[in-house]
Amino acid sequence: MKYLDEYRNPDAARRIVHAISKVATRPWTIMEVCGGQTHTIVKYGIDELVPAGIELVHGPGCPVCVTSLETIDRAHAIASRPDVIFCSFGDMLRVPGSRGDLLQLKSHGSDIRVVYSPLDAVTIAAANPTRQVVFFAIGFETTAPPNAMAVWLAHKRGLTNFSMLVSHVLVPPSITSILQAPDNRVQAFLGPGHVCTVMGYQEYEPIARRYRVPIVITGFEPLDMLEGLLWTVRQLEEGRAEVENPYARAVRRDGNAASRRLINDVFEVCDRKWRGVGSIPKSGLKLRYEYRAHDASRLFEVETIETQESPVCISGEVLRGMKKPHQCPAFGTQCTPDNPLGATMVSAEGACAAYYAYGRYLNAGAIALQQV
Amino acid sequence: MCLGIPGRVVELWREHDILMGKVDFDGVLKRVCLEHVPDVTPGEYVLVHVGFALSQIDEAEARKVFAFLDGMEQLDELYVPSPDGEKP
Question: What CATH number does residue A211 fall under?
């Protein structure tokens, strides 16, 4: 087994779809939390394979999308300094801030480097002792252990020229905020499989109980997603609201203890502003005081930049599962991946960008625009 | 973003007192931090995110969905239409 192709087998997928259609008797609204899962759903057409009554709505789990405009602007300001080597995951480079994106800045000569791993940024810092190396640390809990490891390692190696601009976000507070909204329509969640490889799923158990929602920890391949949906629909039909884990090949109930310990050593929980959603209490991670020497937000003074979001964009409603991308009048016309108006179009994993990339409802967007 | 790719561990070593390794992603070899999967041995699979192994893949668990599908097949009460409408 290679644990990849086997989970993309169309025949096996058809069988699970059939099993879902046998179990489903009523319409249900199910949210996948993670942007990677949104991408799989749209790419493989899973939303069109499942029985008609089952609606899949797309959650806030794309960290690139929800990184606030203020943070993008701050990254831009730091990356434009001549003494800085700015390192980032590739998908942050095209996100437009108030003063353009990082890719444009790179084309104007700033030293901006795409890295595969935050640990590569530590290696760059060691090789360039006279330069400041700043890593743009975004992500959910999945990315927190590698980012924490990079800071921990730089600290241990005495690399005082290594720092991080941290904009980490956490899943449980974001789904709680969706469930607390008076107009919430989400009845169950496909839980974020890779977040749970780190954190486990114990913290989802009180959420499932309190809000009476099934949460099924789900992987990212088409078969994983369909299996997650089957388990979810089964719970909904049986009136159960539990945390279940069909993604057990990668996820254990208590996650990865060493990773959780390291996250806790390096980071602490803080309030965080989510693009398109607003501020959610205790929904982010920031560096602990002990690691302040590696905190780019302390090291680099950046003037406050006034930011303004598009008044047309409905990404906030898309991120909370209230609306679908094609219900926005700007979708596919004023707003495209090359010229995104808001959070859900800025990254390939955003719901709007995924719908656009796979040609979903593009005409519907154009029709909606004509009607405005 | 939370992409996790399964890969086979080829080689392990320590570097700056951290467990590192070479991981094979279907022919593409990458340097990966294995510090948080300390029990892994060469030949076993790990789930890797941004150059960092988050968990070891449990082979027995991985086979369960296929066992479930086989079970469905054996029930033989299912007629699963293929896209062209022919019986499988």
Answer: 3.40.50.11750
